[in-house]
Amino acid sequence: MYVCICATTAKPEFGSATKNGAYSKETLGDTCGASTGCGNCQNAGDDPVATLPF
Ligand code: FES
Predict the structure, then answer these.
(1) CA-to-CA distance for 54 and 8, rounded, in angstroms?
(2) What is the CATH number of the domain that holds 39?
(3) Is the CB of 9 under 6 A from ligand 1?
(4) Of 17, 38, 42, 52, which is most buried with the most CB atoms under 10 A?
(5) Which residue range is the domain that position 26 belongs to?
């Protein structure tokens, strides 16, 4: 399952990035590519991305 369709970032890849301290849009983008496109993954309802502070 992809968390970020734009960057084709899968949920495990995303989880690994956040576990390693990627809690901003910029660090997520640098680490796994998520949040670098349309931004829809930042408002994904129950998705963990929605809990991030951006
Ligand atoms: S779905 Fe993540 S930036 Fe588009």
Answers:
(1) 20
(2) 1.10.10
(3) no
(4) 17
(5) 2-51
